[in-house]
Amino acid sequence: MAVQCVVFNCSDQLDYMAMAKFFKGLASAGAWACFDEFNRIDVEVLSVVAQQISTIQQALEARVERFMFEGVELALRPSCAVFITMNPGYAGRTELPDNLKALFRPVAMMVPDYALIAEISLFSFGFSEAKALAKKITTTFKLSSEQLSSQDHYDFGMRAVKTVISAAGNLKRENPEMSEELIVLRAIRDVNVPKFLQDDLKLFRGIVSDLFPKVKEKPIDYGDLEDSMRKNCLKSGLEDVDGFITKCIQLYETTVVRHGLMLVGPTGSGKTRCYEVLKKALTSLKGKDSPAGTPYEEVYTFVLNPKSITMGQLYGEFDLLTHEWTDGILSSMIRVGSSSTTSDKKWYLFDGPVDAVWIENMNTVLDDNKKLCLTSGEIIKLSEAMTMMFEVQDLAVASPATVSRCGMVYLEPSILGLEPYVNCYLKTLPDAIFDYKDKLQSLFDRYLEESLTFLRNNTKEFVTTVNSNLTCSLMRILDCFFAPFVPKEGETIREENIALVETLIEPWFIFALIWSVGATCDGDGRKKYSEYLRKKMEDEKVAMKFPDYGLVYDYSLEDGGVSRKPNDDDDEDTHTGEVKWVNWMASIAMPDIPPEMNFSDIIIPTMDLVRGSFVLEMLLTNNKKVMCVGPTGSGKTLCVANKLLNYMPKEFLSHFLNFSARTSANQTQDIIDSKLDKR
Questions:
Q1: Where does the Dynein heavy chain hydrolytic ATP-binding dynein motor region domain start and stop, copy by copy (predicted)?
Q2: Are 517 and 451 in contact (CB under 8 A)?
Q3: Is residue 225 classed exposed, middle or buried when 0-12, 13-18 and 19+ CB atoms within 10 A define those classes?
């Protein structure tokens, strides 16, 4: 007779009562239990667990049919057994107590013979040339690990080999007449190509071509899927860049062979858009046959940020007083998904950094068990329609156990570049500005890439940024300048303003460039960038140059009254029609300071304060989010508080929150809610 074997993934949320329930069931049923990641349980709980296991072992040695376990008499079946697995040295692990170590026989696992395992697995899938193909698979991974760059998201271990074999088995089943070498080559490519950097991809292709010299692979025709993705890109206001579409197809291929996968790449590399475009494309193709012969299914996504909530809120927890179980967000979503009877695909997106603290609980979800183990002892089995996706910037703090369990799709910023951002932005210009689209395009082409390259090579930033982020910042400031040309209800755009657009386009762009691309570097970097920009403007023969003295950061743009609203309180007509660079301090009068004012309350307008306040107000009044960065004592709080409390329009209300390392998402929400009225 077979013996029931239960695999359970342990976590630091487990207490001795939950473990006692397990042991009672094991002893009564005569089942086997494998407790994975056993050393994640708190050491205080492990000491009690040692006593519980000792009680069962003593009863087994005495060969009794019934025994007392924590005050309850239980039937004992002698076939029951407990096994534990663990990875010592990972984050969040504890040393096993000596009284627990004495109860188990340690077995050290050695590196397996990959080639032999691959050979037997390939034979089981019906491959006649299994021995030679297994050797080629293992050699591919061996050479890749030696020749390719070392990246956190690369894994060339047993799980990677197993995934290739599984993919090859599926292809063999779908295409029994296809050459076995071609099947294995395609499986190797499908599983590995999505995760490689562009430079490593060239080396990998060389390795594969050496091992499979006579095999010519034809690309799979994803005609309908590719057309659908391109249509959805354009519908969403995105550029259908070939490299991006390729990544979307790779994501689809990875979802076919893996139920757990990670979208890896820096901010702005297109991770979110990648799965969104694929989701819309698959949903629109519902019912049509894929190249594999199976129909495309509708896709539903469930997105959550795991680091914004506690472990209890994510996975569920017991109430410490009543010992009642409360479901977590993920456990309730998985339970609903696993009980669904439809064939629709369900993607669970975890948008946030991956670390060993929260993701290790999902080890049994991501491996072949496909089970979510809860602290309550409940085990939820995932269905075939469910996929776990993780959207991460990097895997620097993820454990190898996690990396090896997931498929990887790496999105490199160079695949997109900055051109799609610019092209998409130029399509959204207001009608009054649209005639100058080509002029703007020319300015982006001449200044943007070159400025970014100069800054990356010659300056230091207070906060690390990526090129796509700085490009978007540039566009946000341009949006602020273009706001007067977006007609509001009952208003018309002044003809004098439209007449000045041609003169202002270039100064607007240069001002936006300075306070976006050039705004994040330190003082020395600003001096260097100022010199570079002056020379660049001279080379480009810009009509309106900066005055010769000072830095380019020392000047504001006098736009001839374009930015003034028609209802601004002013006695005289502010529309001068004159466009020029003006020193920030030129029109600033020294404030009247009452004799009774506290010394600490006196604010003297400096250039930093004036220009910081101007940029802050311009962005905030146009509903743009702002992050102020700088060294300690540089006046960030003063600048923001002075602007928000004294000089913002009446429709804006401000509230200040002080954060610390202990501030939680719930506390932040409660503070914000306390200032709002429900209607």
A1: 1-272
A2: yes
A3: buried
CB 492 within 8 A of CB 432: no
Beta-bridge mates of residue 299: 345
Which residues share a beta bridge with 74?
A: 67
Distance in angstroms (rounded) separating the CA atoms of residues 371 and 225: 31
Side chain identity at residue 211, one-letter code: L
Structure tokens, 19 = 């473990």
For residue 559, the Cα-to-chain-centroid distance in whole angstroms is 40
Site of tokens 């799980």: 159
What span, in angstroms and rounded, lies between the C-alpha atoms of 335 and 199?
A: 42
Cα–Cα distance, 233 to 249 (Å, whole number): 14
What's residue 571's pLDDT? 45
Phi, psi of 552 (to 5 degrees): -65, -20
> In terms of residues, how long is the chain?
679
Give the span between the Cα atoms of 422 and 514, in whole angstroms: 17
Cα diameter, the chain = 103
Kindly give the parts of the chain with pLDDT less than 50.
Answer: 570-572
Q: How far apart are CA 307 and CA 657, in angstroms?
A: 20
Nearest to 552 by CA among 572, 566, 532, 577: 532
Collapse the DSSP code of 335 into the 3-class scheme (helix H, G, I; strand E, B; otherwise coil) and give the result: helix
Amino acid at 442: S
C-alpha to C-alpha distance for 579 and 507, rounded to whole angstroms? 9
The pLDDT of residue 630:
83
pLDDT of residue 261: 94
Q: Where are the beta strands (DSSP E) in 468-614?
A: 555-559, 579-583
Tell me which H or E stretch contains 288: none
What one-character DSSP code corresponds to residue 583? E
Closest alpha carbon to 76 in 122, 13, 29: 29
Contact present, 404 and 362 (Cβ < 8 Å):
no
Q: Which residues contact 632 (CB under 8 A, 6 or more apart)?
A: none
CA–CA dist 455, 522 (Å, integer) = 11
Determine the Cα–Cα distance for residues 323 and 319; give it in Å rounded to an integer: 5
Identify the DSSP state of 529: H
Query: Burial of 125 by CB count in 10 Å (0-12 exposed, 13-18 middle, 19+ buried)?
Result: middle
Q: Which residues contact 317 (CB under 8 A, 6 or more apart)?
A: 13, 311, 325, 326, 328, 375
- CA 463, 464, 470: angle at the middle one, nearest 5? 100
Q: CA–CA distance from 630 to each of 320, 519, 520, 610, 637 (Å)? A: 44, 10, 9, 16, 10
Q: Given this model, what pLDDT does residue 488 score?
A: 80
Cβ neighbours of residue 104 closer than 8 Å, sequence gap 6 or more: 84
**Residue in the structure block whose two tokens are 């029609």:** 577
Residues 549, 470: Cα–Cα separation, whole Å:
27
> Which residues, 6+ apart, have CB-to-CB distance to 178 below 8 Å?
171, 172
Whole-angstrom Cα Rg for the chain: 32
Give the pLDDT confidence score for residue 566 in this predicted structure.
Answer: 55
Q: Tell me if 465 sits within 8 A of 627, measured CB to CB.
A: no
User: For all residues of the chain together, what is the average pLDDT?
Assistant: 89
Residue the block writes with tokens 């291929």:
253
